Structure formats: structure tokens, C-alpha cells
Amino acid sequence: MEDPRILKDAKEITATTKFGSPSSTLTTGKIGNADVVILSRHGKKHTIMPSNVNFRANIMALKEHGCTHIIATTACGSLREEIKPGHLVFCDQFIDRTTKRDSTFYDSGKVCHIPMAEPFCEKLRSLLAETAKEMKLEHHDKGTVITIEGPRFSTKAESHMYRQWNADVINMSTVPEVVLAREAGICYAIVAMSTDYDCFLDDKPAVTIDEVLKVMKQNSENVKKLLMQVIPKIDYMECKCKEDIKTSIIGG
Asked: For residue 100, what are the CA distances in angstroms to 53, 145, 182, 196?
């Protein structure tokens, strides 16, 4: 997904923001007629653990380079037997179980109460689901992702609790990324890649990182093809995602 070979005229840009440096250089280029920026959330060599990702710098760097839409890819564990390893989920809701991340751009001077009832861009999510159906990819049109602090995986008790909360997949990266994108007025959707079953299944051994990486590698080509199909179709007209911030700030 972070493969610069999918871009035409690719080049690297070093960015900085008032919130610090993003996780990686920005790779810019084109897919069809669309200008595209690729940012590696965990660094080019996956050296940044989830709690240490500078989410504010990442989103601000994309905003300052003109990005209007973000399609974020994320590995996740499945909390439902019907969401099998290798399936894609285009989530429409999240539950936040993070504990120590900066989750707003407005931590001084002004207060921002951004609406989050519908956290993911409906237009972008629907486009992903429709295109996956056309491509005959195994997918789920919607679902709830629960984002935990990590970097450890869940206990069985936690896994069962999250299922009772009606969560469908679990990861360590969507929050606060999705919240910050809304504050920045950027349409945001995720392609959640189920790499394994979370530990709620008693008849399966606990997940290992080797299993996760194996399924991710198998899935990555499908996701690249999906992005190549979706990005040229994006509608750049006005969207509620871009408007919410205008009525959400108090003070200053």
C-alpha cells in the first residue's frame, strides 16, 4: 500500500509542521489524473510503535500539501468468525480505547467539539465498497473498529468484552487519526485488512506476528489494485466531512 511504484512521476518530499515531523517523508505523484501523497504511518521501515506515532504531524502534513481525502490502510484482528483472515472491512464506526494520544489540534487557545456520530466519510466508504464488489474482493461494506492503545494484543477477557460491545475488528491506529482528519476538514475512510482472528476463539492458538505479516503480504496486492481503481473515481465536490469544523470551535 505504501509502494511508490503505484505512482506516476513519484518524488520524495521532507515535510515539517508546527506539531513536529510526520512519520516519514511524503511520496508524491499521480494515479490517473489525481495528485496523490503517500505517508507511512509507522515509518518507512515500520519502526514507530502505535503509541509513538505523531498523528497530529501526519494529518497536518497531508493537509498542508493539499490532501482533501485520506484512504488509510490498517491491519486488524477479526472479532467475528464471518470476517475471515484476508477479508477487507470498510468501517463506518469506531470505539476508542486509546489512553495517551493527542487527539485534537485545539489543545490551547480554542476548544473544538467536533461531531463524530458518523466518523468515516460515507461517500468514500461507499465508493470503496462498490469498487471492491466490482473487483470481486472478499469484503464487508461496514463494521465497527475498536482501537486499543497497544502495542500488546488483547487478553481473552478483553476480546470477549469487545465482541459484547458489537465491535467487528480491532486495531491500534485508527484513533485519533480519524478524529484529526475531521478537524482538518479531510474526508477519511479506512481499508481494514483482517489478518487474523482475535483471541476469542478457544480452538485456535493465539495470534503471532509472523501470521499477521504473512496475511498482510498476501492482501497488499489486492489493496493496491483497489486503490488504483478507487482514487481516479473520487468526487471532489463538497462533503459534510469538510464542513463540520466550521461550527465546532469555541473561543480564541
From this structure: 11, 18, 20, 26
